[in-house]
Design brief:
The complex is a heterodimer of chains A (570) and B (183). Chain A has a six-stranded parallel β-sheet with strand order 3-2-4-5-7-6, with helices on both faces. In chain A, strands 11-10-9-12-13-14 form a six-stranded parallel β-sheet, sandwiched between helices. Chain A has a six-stranded parallel β-sheet with strand order 16-15-17-18-20-19, sandwiched between helices. In chain A, helix 17 links the parallel strand 15 and strand 16. In chain A, 36% of the residues lie in helices and 16% in strands. The relative contact order of chain A is 0.11. Chain B is α+β, with helices and mostly antiparallel strands and 183 residues long. The two termini of chain B are 35 Å apart. Chain B has two domains: 78 residues, ACT domain (Alpha-Beta Plaits, 2-Layer Sandwich), CATH 3.30.70.260; 71 residues, Alpha-Beta Plaits, CATH 3.30.70. Classes of the chains: A alpha/beta (570), B alpha+beta (183). The complex binds thiamine diphosphate (TPP) and magnesium ion. The site of thiamine diphosphate has 20 residues of chain A, from helix 17, helix 19 and helix 21.
Chain lengths: 570, 183
């Protein structure tokens, strides 16, 4: 045992937890910890805004499965983190956020840069801590990591007072081991529920798997693939479930929900059994709950018992680790006779050539779908793509066919604009050998574009594709459909993104024609540093199909036929 | 309907806030909340009464159990349970009315815990109904001050902990109009 300051204990614990990179921004209340940091083998990435630090930690965690760490000072530093914490909470991402706090004697006095960050973040963290003594640092850090990554993962915040960082105490890592009582890892599946579910699966004639983020979080993609290969049951994925099964897998029908494939949504409505794996029947995938999959029995597997039966009543609910469930099922599974069901789905798909934008003639217009499609072609579906929120996000989900787990990183639950650029930096730092692409709107890019400076300072190589349509496009689309085209506050004046990037020392190009997309994308990949591409796409294009919020899932707005010839979608 | 949970929590700063905030955050109203120590050091017991339908009740229970400081949750609503409230009642008592009040106190098996020249303080435990009943009868004498606790609950006998969340996969009805209309 040695005597260390709270600040030293903090870093030593992080190193022992396997942390190699942290994203942060210093300030008075966290200064003792920054001072101690220099002695420890941890890379600190200096961000330009604390929101960026949380998104970077988030992207880091989503790309690698490891816990991401963000660090900031008290007061404004801490409050700037709130959006990133809420984003991670909604998507069950394990991050640990460390904030400095004023001295323990000053708490409650409205001291300079004091803010009640544990109070503020209480509803948007899985758990949080206020540490006021050096000897609480080690047990708290260890418990925080356990809480963040166990069960249904989520963000944890640790607020450490300045005096707890400065004072010293005897440090004993082993004695600080957390109690398992903090783990909420579901319960082992019961034989009865497993059997009931298998019975439903055996009897089904039109079964469909709804594959969610939980498959990735449970590290169960292998088991899931076996399940699909053995039974032959077709699969629909949620936005965050993309990558749970390779897009090229013959059973993978594609994305469900508000901007999901029309045939997928119709198949859900016609199914006689839904097997929901690690997804939570969010309103963006169900539409009107009263008319949702009324013909289907439902099996719901989720590690969080609070999700089962929350939105949709289920016939069999299993609140267990998904991997355990899939493993327990596997020996009893057999091939289902689903010829008729697949014929029906093929019929629903109709003429897929209409969607085949690859073969569409270049009519002089550049559509976002073209850009995404070409990035997919050039990268062979193997890049990590980090998207922002808006139309481009949905086009990415529709046209980039992801082959690998953890290769689409996007803010699903909270829909946080400004997420993409920082999250991509985190993803790249977590996976330095991966090819990372940012797909971002002109609006969302401007929310966190200050992180271009972080890219420059930290020498990060990513590729940024701005889908520049001159609008807050997704909101404009709602105005077009539901507000009589009154474009209130959605036209967007942007800076010259090429010049802007150049000011940061970042290579950049503008692309206005379809024929230039592939060569520019190829050149960007070859360039050793980050490249920003400003794609000037069709301005008033819309994402189809669309289930209006709250409408029946099968009542989709389809792409009007004249536009079909230009080839973005049907 | 009123749902009663017995929640065993670690006695950590802010734990009450976490429980209360969770119920608020999920959109339910707390009818009553009582907290106190147990015989186990470091563990407190919260008796929480929430107005919710049975499917929501299962969800609240599951959400409570997600709190790191919550060790165990029991929904005792459907179990044979003893419920108690405590009230302190200060009532005007003149020389003429004092005996009469003390007789009422006897009937209700309450106790007089303080006597002043012009008032009495009465301590009563029992169900909500009983306390309401006593208050009704005392009201004409002139109620000066009333302090009531929330509800305490304990299941009868030595029931197995079948209702605790650890083994729960609750079922629920779909929520109406829980659709968000935002981009
Ligand atoms: C922080 C935040 N503010 C507002 C919104 C609401 N919103 C959703 S999509 C969108 C428009 C996004 O515009 P842009 O980034 O240009 O992407 P596009 O839809 O044009 O592809 C807005 C404003 C949001 N999701 N997040
Ligand atoms: Mg835009």
């Amino acid at each position: 045992m040695e005597r260390l300051t709270g600040a030293e204990i903090l870093w030593d614990c992080l190193v022992r937890e396997g942390v190699t990179d942290v994203f942060g921004y210093p300030g008075g209340a966290i200064l003792p910890s920054y001072d101690a940091m220099l002695k420890y083998p941890i890379r600190h990435v200096l961000v330009r805004h604390e929101q960026g630090a949380t998104h970077m930690a988030d992207g880091y965690a989503r790309a690698s499965g490891r816990v991401g760490v963000a660090i900031a000072t008290s007061g404004p530093g801490a409050t700037n983190m709130v959006t990133g914490i809420a984003t991670a909470m909604m998507d069950s991402v394990p991050i640990v956020c460390i904030t400095g706090q004023v001295g323990s004697k000053l708490i409650g006095t409205d001291a300079f840069q004091e803010t009640d960050i544990t109070g503020i973040t209480l509803p948007v963290t899985k758990h949080n801590y206020l540490v006021t003594r050096a000897d609480e640092v080690a047990p708290t850090i260890r418990e925080a990591f356990l809480v963040a990554r166990s069960g249904r993962p989520g963000p944890v915040l640790i607020d450490i007072t300045k005096d707890a960082q400065q004072s010293s105490c005897l440090y004993d890592w082993d004695a600080a081991a957390p109690s398992e009582s903090v783990v909420r890892a579901g319960t082992p599946p019961t034989d009865t529920s497993l059997r009931q579910a298998l019975e439903l699966i055996r009897q089904a004639e039109r079964p469909l798997v709804l594959a969610g983020h939980g498959i990735l979080l449970a590290e169960a993609t292998e088991e899931f693939r076996q399940f699909v290969d053995t039974t032959g049951i077709p699969v629909a994925v949620t936005l965050l479930g993309i990558g749970a099964l390779p897009a090229s897998h013959p059973s993978n029908l594609g994305m469900m929900g508000m901007h999901g494939e029309a045939w997928v949504n119709t198949a859900i409505q016609e199914a006689d059994l839904l097997i929901a794996l690690g997804m939570r029947f969010d309103d963006r995938v169900t539409g009107n709950l009263k008319t949702y999959a009324v013909n289907a029995k439902k099996i719901h597997v989720d590690i969080d018992p609070a999700e089962i039966g929350k939105n949709v009543p289920v016939d069999v609910g299993i609140a267990s680790d998904l991997r355990d469930v899939l493993r327990a099922w596997q020996p009893s599974l057999g091939r289902l006779q689903l010829g008729g069901w697949y014929d029906r789905i093929t019929e629903l798909k109709g003429d897929s050539a209409v969607r085949d934008i690859q073969n569409m003639p270049d009519d002089g217009h550049l559509y976002a779908a073209h850009v995404i499609h070409d990035i997919w072609r050039v990268t062979e579906g193997r890049a990590i793509v980090v998207t922002d929120v808006g139309q481009h996000q949905m086009w990415e989900a529709q046209y980039y066919r992801h082959e690998q787990p953890r290769s689409l990183i996007t803010s699903g639950g909270l829909g946080t604009m400004g997420f993409a650029l920082p999250a991509a930096i985190g993803a790249k730092i977590a996976c330095p050998d991966a090819e990372v692409w940012v797909v971002v709107g002109d609006g969302g890019f401007q929310m966190t574009m200050c992180e271009l400076a972080t890219i420059a300072q930290e020498n990060v190589k990513i590729n940024i594709a701005i889908i520049n349509n001159g609008y807050l496009g997704m909101v404009r689309q709602w105005q077009e459909f539901f507000y009589d085209r009154r474009y209130a506050a959605t036209p967007l004046l942007s800076p010259d993104f090429v010049k802007l990037a150049q000011a940061f020392g970042i290579e950049a190009h503008r692309v206005e024609a379809r024929r230039d997309v592939v060569p520019t994308v190829e050149a960007a990949r070859r360039h050793p540093g980050t490249v920003l591409l400003d794609f000037r796409v069709e301005q008033e294009d819309s994402v189809f199909p669309m289930v209006p919020a709250g409408a029946d899932l099968h009542r989709m707005i389809r792409r009007p036929t004249p536009l079909a010839e230009t080839g973005a979608d049907r | 309907m009123l749902i009663t949970y017995v929640v065993h929590v670690e006695d950590k700063p802010g734990v009450l806030n976490r429980v209360a905030s969770l119920v608020r955050r999920r959109g339910y109203n707390i009818e009553s909340l009582t907290v106190g120590h147990t015989d186990t050091p470091g563990i407190s017991r919260i008796t929480l009464v929430v107005d919710a339908d049975p499917s929501a009740a299962a969800r609240i229970e599951a959400n409570l159990y997600k709190l790191v400081h919550v060790r165990r949750v029991e929904n005792v609503t459907a179990l044979p349970t003893v419920y108690r409230y405590l009230a302190l009642i200060k009532v005007t008592a003149t020389v003429e009315t004092r005996t009469q009040i003390m007789q009422i106190v006897d009937v209700f098996r309450a106790r007089v815990v303080d006597v002043a020249t012009d008032s009495l303080m009465i301590e009563v435990t029992g169900t909500d109904d009983k306390i309401d009943g006593l208050l009704e009868i005392l009201r004409p004498f002139g109620l000066l001050e009333v302090a009531r606790t929330g509800q305490l609950a304990m299941t009868r006998g030595n029931l197995p902990r079948a209702a605790s969340t650890e083994r729960h996969a609750p079922e629920a009805e779909p929520v109406d109009a829980a659709i968000s209309f935002s981009v």
